Amino acid sequence: MTHPFASSQAPISRDPYFFLSYARIPSTEEERSREHPDQDLVDFHRELCRHIMQLTDHDGSEAPGFLDRSMGIGADWERNLKTALATCQVFVPVYTKRYFSREWCGKEWDAFARRQARQHLTRPYTVNAIVPVLWLSPGHLNLPPVAEAVQYIHPDLGTSYLKMGLYGLREAGYAIQYRRAVWGIAQTIVKVAQQARLDPCDPELFDDLRNVFEEGP
Q1: Are 188 and 4 in contact (CB under 8 A)?
Q2: Residue 155: which domain range?
């Protein structure tokens, strides 16, 4: 049986298929002796990568999804981050309460937006390759103008996902709905990547990044 995405898959690549942009949760004193405070998100990233490997022919030499788990210090960290933003196919911001108050999250968004803007100069009809993920329900979020302009409601992910977000589904015990939403997000990422065909860029394009969450409409 031919997979519905098979006819238009991108060439085999070791570049990250998607960039998972998120805001870290600070560790409480009690949590420091337990699992990582972002373990739920790490699990989501792993599940998403597993689906992407099934849906694409990514070579798997590196994880198909970039997830920064370092402390965000030093030139190597920033260079690795910018390289991933310059080569990934899809930008996946995880909408949480903290996300829009973090400077580097706003800068990551700016970097990917610049890359898309450059491609629009030669291919103006390129689709938007930003695929937001609702970690919490929309009622818990205060979206800045730049995020309000991006579609995040995907009915095929299920009404429970739209009402509760992924974290809400997971914590409330809606395992089937959670898995269905993660699978749907993976399919959306692949579909958007195939439609956008975003070209890589020189990371120097990101030399003077701004926190776009602080900007008005």
Answers
A1: no
A2: 10-208
* Measured CA distances, 210 to 110, 112, 137 (Å): 6, 12, 27
Buried b (16+ CB within 10 A) or exposed e, 154-193: beebbebbbebbbbbbbeeebeebbebbbbbbbbbbbbbb
Spatial distance between the Cα atoms of 186 and 26, rounded to a whole number of angstroms:
27
Cα–Cα distance for residue pair 70/161, rounded to 1 Å? 29
Q: Number of structural domains, the chain?
A: 1
Report the C-alpha gap between 146 and 172 in whole angstroms.
Answer: 30
Q: Kindly state whether residue 217 falls inside one of the protein's structural domains.
A: no
pLDDT of residue 160: 94
Please, which residues have CB within 8 angstroms of residue 200's CB and are 6 or more apart in sequence? 15, 86, 87
Give the pLDDT confidence of 205-216 residue by residue, as tens digits: 999 999 999 976
- Cβ burial of 7 (10 Å; 0-12, 13-18, 19+) is exposed
Amino acid at the residue 73:
I
Tokens of 121: 């100069």
Indicate whether 3 belongs to any domain: no
215 is a domain residue: no
The pLDDT tens digits for 6-22 are 334 444 456 889 999 99
Residue 56: count of CB within 10 angstroms of its CB: 24
Instruction: Answer whether residue 203 is part of any domain.
Output: yes
Task: Let me know: does 116 contact 129? Beta carbons within 8 Å.
Answer: yes
CA distances from residue 100 to 18, 24, 109, 126 in whole angstroms, order as listed: 20, 12, 10, 26
> Pick from 126, 132, 82: which is nearest to 107 by CA?
82
